[in-house]
Structure formats: C-alpha cells, structure tokens
Amino acid sequence: MNEKWLIALLPIVVGLLAIVPVIKADNVQVTASVPTYVSVVFNYNTVNFSSVLPGSTDVPAPNQNSGIYNVSVTTNVPLTVSAYRTAWSPSDVLTLKFGVGTSVPSSPQVTLTTSSQTVATITQIGQYTHYHGYWLTVPLNAKGDYSTTVTITYQPA
After folding, report:
1. Cβ atoms within 10 Å, residue 125
2. pLDDT in tens, 36-88
3. Largest Cα span, the chain
4. Summary count for the chain: helices (H), strands (E)
5. What is the C-alpha separation between 82 and 3, in angstroms, rounded?
6. CA neighbours within 13 Å on the CB side: how many for 145?
7. Is 89 part of any domain?
8. CATH classification at residue 80
9. Which of these, 150, 50, 144, lies nearest to 91 by C-alpha position?
C-alpha cells in the first residue's frame, strides 16, 4: 500500500519542478551610428533692390528688416557659413555687403567678393531660422541694370 502512494505522488512533484523559473543574466551590446545631419532650406531665391540712385551707400535690401531673407536650419553639428558673389554684369562696379545672424542683421558684416569667405560660425544645434541681410553701394558713375549671383554655403564646422 505504501508503494501505490509513492507512485501517485511522483507526478505531482515532477509537475512542481517544471514551473520553477530559471533566471539567467547576460550582457547585450547595443550600437547605433548617427550621421552628421545638416538641412538648410532657403526661404527666398532673389533679392531685388529695384531702382537705387547713383552715389547711394549701404542701401538695405527692400523689406529685409521684416526678416524675409532667411533660411530654415536643422543640424546636429556646429556650422560654418561661407559666401561669395559672381562679378557684377555688365560691369563689376557695385559693392554688395552681407550680414547673417539668428536675428535680422542690422548692419553689414562683410563685403562680398568673387572669392569665398567665411561669414559666420554657428555653434547652435537644433532647428532654427538664420537671417540674411544685403546692402548695396552704387558709385556716382554707374547706370543701367546690374546683376550678380550670390552663393551661400552651410557646412559642418
């Protein structure tokens, strides 16, 4: 009679052993690669001074005090901003000055030439608006219609 009782108890003991959890710990290495990200969207594509009188000095571009010459920037690194212009056509006699900032520039910072130059170093990271300003000087002997192309480059510092 004792043997039957042991046989009946054995399946219950084995079942209890099966639900005891096994705990195991291990180290898991997790890696990620985050690239440099720079997005610059120009919110304008032309600056038209219209009619500027000969002999005028540092005439601001129309409506620039309202911040219309700006770019939307998103970046995860500091940036360097450089700029240059092509020669004025039909004659390279006008002077174009330029300013940049996180607020609308109130005065020019550099005179743009046909050689690229650094106009700003930006340490701000994230999403923001960067403003541009243009000022034109016209000599007394100038007349006619003039044009130039300005190239502005934003790149990792």
Report:
1. 13
2. 999 999 999 999 999 999 999 999 999 999 999 999 999 999 999 999 999 99
3. 127
4. 1, 9
5. 94
6. 2
7. yes
8. 2.60.40
9. 144
Q: Please check whether residue 149 is in contact with residue 120, taking contact to mean a CB–CB distance below 8 angstroms.
A: no
- The pLDDT value recorded for residue 133 is 98
Which tokens is 63 given? 């409506």
To which residue do tokens 């129309």 refer? Answer: 62
**For residue 112, what are the domain limits?**
38-45+52-156
Residue 127 belongs to some domain of the structure: yes
pTM: 0.81
**C-alpha–C-alpha distance, residues 124 and 23, integer Å:** 48
Beta-ladder partners of 153: 82
**Cα–Cα separations (whole angstroms), residue 80 to 31, 70, 83, 102:** 30, 16, 10, 14
Type of residue found at 105: P
Separation CA 48–CA 64 (nearest Å) = 11
Domain presence at residue 97 = yes
Asked whether residue 18 is domain-assigned, the answer is: no
Number of structural domains the chain divides into: 1
